[in-house]
Amino acid sequence: MRVLRPLVILAVVVMAMLGSATAQRGSDGTVTLLYWQAVSILNPYLSGGTKDIYASSVVLEPLARYAPDGSFIPYLASEIPTLDNGGISEDLTSITWKLRDDVVWSDGTPFTAADVVFTGEYCMNDEAGCVARNFFNDIASVEALDDHTVRINFSVPKPNPYSAFVSAESPILQAAQFADCVGVRAQECTEQNFFPVGTGPFVVSDFRPNDVVTFEANENFRDPDKPAFQTVVIKGGGDAASAARAVLETGEADWAWNLQVAPEILAQMEATGIGQLALSFGTSVERVLVNFSNPDPALGDDRAEYMDGNNPHPILSDLRVRQALSMAIDRATLVEIGYGPTGKATCNIIPAPEIYADERTDCLQQDIEGANALLDEAGWVRGPDGVRTKDGMRLSLLFQTSTNAVRQDFQALLKEWWNELGVETELRNIDAGVFFGNDPSSPDTYGKFWADLEMFTSSAAGTDVEAYANRWTCAEIAGRDNQWLGSNQHRWCRAEYDALSAELAQTVDIDRRAELIKAMNAMLVDDVAVMTLVYRADVSARANSLMGTQKQSWDSELWNIADWYRAD
Amino acid sequence: MGRYLIRRLLLAIPTLLAISFIIFAVLDLAPGDPTGNLPLTIPPEVRQQVRQALGADDPFLVKYAKWVRQFVVYEPLSQLKASTGIDLVPEGAVRILSWQTRSPVSDLIWQRMPQTLWVVGLAYLLGVLIAVPVGVLSAYRQYSWFDQLGTFVSMVGFSVPTFFTGLLAIIIFSVQLGWLPSIYDTTLVVKDWPSFVQQVRQMIMPVAVLALFNASQLSRFMRASMLDNMHQDYARTARSKGLRERAVVLGHVLRNSLIPVVTLIALGIPGIFTGAIITEQIFRVNGLGDLLIRGIYNSDIPMVQTITFMFAVLIVVFNILADVAYGVLDPRIRYG
């Protein structure tokens, strides 16, 4: 008896200490995220933008995700298949995923290979309008070898087979829930699209489209101690500046996404001290595209048509002119004015992942005299009004971009610098929804490119830059025959580049692939098919009390929301 | 009066049909692509498939005819089924779906109604309640300090745009003082005192900003109308009969002055339903105005078409109501 009492007290004390050391599921209450472009749908296969993909990643999970360093992390798979472990076949025509057997859907039913097979059929159905359709290119079939093994068979050897079912853009849907939503019916399944059943740390409890989504902790989540938060609220509406204000100044929210706000304003808000910016660099590069075809309105229907190279741009076909234009740009000033700490001057069109990044810095120095010398050499003579002419033609360029304060600042600066070269620049800006749209009847889309130069940002999907680099092949040239849907808006065509692309498609060795990508990058930049300007970070803001976040650009920024917690 | 009413209602039908056609034509001709906001990493062939799946590439008249049938037949029947359970919905009927959310447009509209009616409707009501007494008093004590002050505040309230006053209010009351929230929580359910207080707190700024704007316009009109009637012969007669000042002003002059003002108020009510787009954006009220503007930005034609047409219906209806009210209030008016 006398021995027992102190032992009991000791046991109680030890248990109390253990209890407070481990976080409980749902112990940290609510976390509020501001997605000023509000979430419209929670099915990423029918999404209207990045916001929908990120929001759905809280509930739906893929077989593997990208980690912040670009490598793969298995989620619903038990390991990443590789050539070494036999997951990828020797001839590169199939990949076999082994699935975890301890995962259940949030409604308690087991997750099996049948769900993966179903998801493949869902997206590969051509009538569904699945936005991730290209993730399933060259797939001959997706088959379930048993309840926890899936094999994807390709129709051609794929050096990079990690596309389908990888990343937040291609998660696994529950076959039972979406059974009646295949093909044309996909658009009408509102209940499923708004309340998808997933394996992730949260379930959707309330969804008001284009307004607010509320998630509750998933009782059937595989890790019993996670997530730390009981409720996640993703509120939409307003604009980027007010979202930044709500996190950094008033403390009404814990996280805000996509803060395209002037750097001085962000710095001022950060100075309040209750929050900080979360940056990650992906592959987003703001660039100026050169039009290699002639966009002269007098050509009528043939305006800006490639025509196998028989319609060259009268001014920009000369490499010296392009080089001069690029040399006149002071990229450091552009970064300072437009992006501050959220951007870096760059000379690479493919700036990441690290193995593909070239060390070039040749474009970072502004050189007006050198540029003027090049134009003199190319035969452009200054006229009485300061604008250069040659063969009766004025060096006059139309420069278009989307309506955006930072972009208009850039346009003004570039126009100033090119003015010093004797280049006359006309500026245009077009509403983003029109510019980036694909309406074939609109004259103002970036695909039509009825201008000499245009500027915007683009990036690669995930870490696979092969598809990104392939955008500049001759086959991708945008024109009348493909309704200006080609991704090569420049109408730039080089046989050597296509040769590199063809070799890349066959190459498995990662070092050789890196060499090829670097060579393709060099070709694009040296030939000034693009003038690279700013390597842009994705900018979010977080409250200082929100811990565990790891902002990244390769996958959803909410990829590890199960690990988020509140600081004490 | 009855025949007048019926004639007006019958005339409204071809009017509305013409309006819907014009709206649809304008929207269809406008450039813009519902896939324009998808990430640029999605290749163009896929975007093309998305457009086809949405029905964005169908010929114009096909799209218009589909929309008319959906709006006139399928939607009312679906609403009937939802509210009473009577299922008259024909096989294969598809409701008007928004291109952004792939969900029925009318569901989205009903979802947004509460916050729009609460914030914008309350602001309108408050504006009216403030404007009438202010206008009356300004007219009664013309050129007094109250009138001068009222004139000044009205001018400021009317000229300064709501995005400025709204932003100013947020900076003062949310950022500097921290008294009021700057984000409107649409999921807040009022079930006890603390949640009621929270609802009031989050409504104060948007309602005040809008009420100021509404009251400014209306008070000027009220004042002018009162001034017109104040010096009429019948007012002088009423005073000389020995009626108290209060009875003269409120009982006689005000009643006559209210006639044009009531007409104005009735014509302004449809404006509540499109919400106050800018104020909703600033405070994240996410009501009908926000729905409309986002639909426009995202080239979501079914959404914009339906909301704009709904607005047209409301305008036509309230126009008729205003005319009827005018006839009821003013016995001199007789409709044949």
Describe what this molecule looks like in 3D.
- The complex is a heterodimer of chains A (568) and B (336).
- Chain A has 568 residues and is of the alpha+beta class.
- Chain A has helices spanning 4-21, 50-56, 113-124, 175-178, 190-194, 240-248, 263-270, 319-327, 331-338, 368-377, 405-420, 432-435, 465-469, 495-506, 510-526; strands at residues 30-35, 64-66, 72-74, 94-98, 139-146, 149-154, 202-208, 212-217, 231-236, 255-256, 275-290, 343-345, 381-382, 388-390, 393-394, 396-402, 424-430, 453-458, 530-543, 546-547, 565-566.
- In chain A, strands 1, 7, 8, 9, 10, 11, 12, 16, 17, 18 and 19 form an 11-stranded mixed beta sheet that branches. Chain A has a 3-stranded antiparallel beta sheet with strand order 4-6-5, covered by helices on one side.
- Chain A is globular.
- In chain A, 52% of the residues are buried.
- Mean pLDDT of chain A is 89; it is low at 16-21.
- Chain B has 336 residues and is an all-alpha fold.
- Chain B folds into 2 domains: 35-98, no CATH class; 105-329, MetI-like fold.
- In chain B, helix 11 packs across helix 12 (288-297) and helix 12 (288-297) runs antiparallel to helix 13 (301-329).
- The longest helix of chain B is centred in the middle third of the chain and has 38 residues, at 193-230.
- Chain B is globular.
- The chains are: A alpha+beta (568), B mainly alpha (336).
- The interface between A and B is large, with 73 and 59 residues.
